Amino acid sequence: MKKTGILNPALNAGLSRLGHGHLVVIADCGLPLPAAGPVVDLALVQGVPRFTEVLDAVLAELEVEASTAAAETGPEVLGWLQQRGLQPVLISHEELKAVLPQAALIIRTGEATPYANVVLRCGVPF
């Protein structure tokens, strides 16, 4: 049995398949997700798990070279991203939603803070 890191099998498998340049979306519970696609839905109830909890777990596993968020994102969420060393490029929320079909992995959280979404572009650790 795995004792550290991400224990969710679907999320673990999704992260293991990622390569340089792949996009990973960490989404709040309100972001409209594609009908078909690589979604790992972690939402249990509103607020669980929190965006920051999922982001921290994913960042511990992933090399990230860039990030993107919606221009409508509030200072609280931008602060969460900046505290973790991310400096997201800001695009409109509509443009962010248009990126979803290109994502190699979408992770839905239970977060209910508006615009708590980020697109991470995978880097290489060497």
Automatic annotation (TrEMBL):
Pfam families: RbsD_FucU (PF05025). It comes from the Bacteria. Pathway: Carbohydrate metabolism; D-ribose degradation; D-ribose 5-phosphate from beta-D-ribopyranose: step 1/2. The active site is at H20 (proton donor). Keywords: Carbohydrate metabolism, Cytoplasm, Isomerase. The keyword Cytoplasm applies. Coiled coil: none annotated. InterPro entries: D-ribose_pyranase, RbsD-like_sf, RbsD_FucU. GO terms for biological process: D-ribose catabolic process. It is found in: Cytoplasm. It is an enzyme of class 5 (isomerase). Belongs to the RbsD / FucU family. RbsD subfamily. Catalyzes the interconversion of beta-pyran and beta-furan forms of D-ribose. This is D-ribose pyranase. It comes from Crystallibacter crystallopoietes.
